[in-house]
Fold:
Amino acid sequence: MAYIVLARKYRSQTFDDVIGQDPIAQTLKNAVKTGRVAHAYLFAGPRGIGKTTMARVLAKALNCLAVDAPTTEPCCKCDSCAAIHIGDDIDVIEIDGATNNGVDQVRELRQNAIYRPARSRFKIYIIDEVHMLTVPAFNALLKILEEPPSHVKFIFATTQPNKVIPTIQSRCQRFDFSNINPNLIAGQLKSILGQEKIKYEDDLILPLAKMAAGSMRDALSLLDRLISTGAEPLTIALLEEFLGCPNTEKIENLIAKIGDGDAADTLAAIEDLITTGLSEVQVVDSLTDYMRDLMVVKSTGTESELLILTAEQRNRAGRLAEKFDITAIIYNITALEKLRWAIKNTDTPRALLDALLLRLALSEHFMNVDELLSQLQTGSSAPVKKKEPTNVKTETRDEGRGRIDNGRRMTEDRRQKLALSEVEGTEDRAGTNNKQRGKTSSQKKNELINDPAVKTVLIGLDATITGIEEDQKH
Ligand SMILES: [Zn+2]
Structure:
């Protein structure tokens, strides 16, 4: 028997089977139960998350031959149910909007729609990627949507609902399908592996589910590819070798080196990842994902449901999070996002990758305006906390970072040095801290804000922040 891909073999049969779209399934069930099924639906959402599956389940519910009226629990065995399930029913017509997008095809549809269904209660048109229709085709479709024969139902599916003209949208009941939670995908993967009697290692499942980025179809096609290697049990090593999944330990190692501010080891850790066959963009993506996890750990702790990690991975993330403060993590994520864009548009991606990750490793934490003011306010001359990077001489570090910055904006280092020197300057002009004593804190604050030297620093900080924001817009 020919091999059927998993996504087809395990396509959900009933409303209760469809994974991750419970509210929509529930609403449609109610509509069927109460006889309030609309004559046109628009199913919107990313690919591979169950739009076509839900459309077929609804068609079965309306047309199941085992009962006399629409049912929320189609038999899934009668000729109609069986034919609808594989997309080959005489009364449920599936049309690919991408290839049948012309006005002639829609006119033909209109002519055929007036005839009653051959054996079922309804003639149902499922038009996939409906946004691909041409404007004349949309207009032709609109005519039949305005006054459809009572035996006709339309189910439109689209990944780009914004491209479906408003006059069509307003005649449909719209459902927005959401990305499927990786935990739900993981559960389905385990269930299928069980039914297929294929051995696997448990730590494979979550990374595999995460790679699918919310799409059940993608998850199952990744699993198909793993199974086709013939290896058993299926392991995380296979995932890395055949599907290019980044090695988690190596990513964690790179993050640790950045957190330690260790230049030589950071470069070595990048090399280690690149030699596993990852592209520079994949390295950046993996780092961004991991930084996001660290941000969640910092904000909500290691037990957060927002983390899709195993217990052991949670512990490791908790330890790594201690190496960063939250502002540094947020800065790193935005910097990585910019780096991703830059890497895609350069002929020397590796140099950019090395340079930016070194910069992250060597950059001191952000000092924000509030922090600066509060230090000025208390007259504290305590130096800004700095991590002294190992393995790098101070002179070369400054020189290198200046070059990365290309003179466009201050480095954190220089900004902090400037801030400190300005503070010291202020204190000198004020005749040491003595004169400051005896004043209320708000008086001191106002004086400081109005001090020309402090103003210069604040304006500089503002300009830097605006510069970063402007850069991100482009
Ligand atoms: Zn049936």
Remarks:
- The two ends are 54 Å apart (CA to CA).
- The chain has 22 helices and five strands.
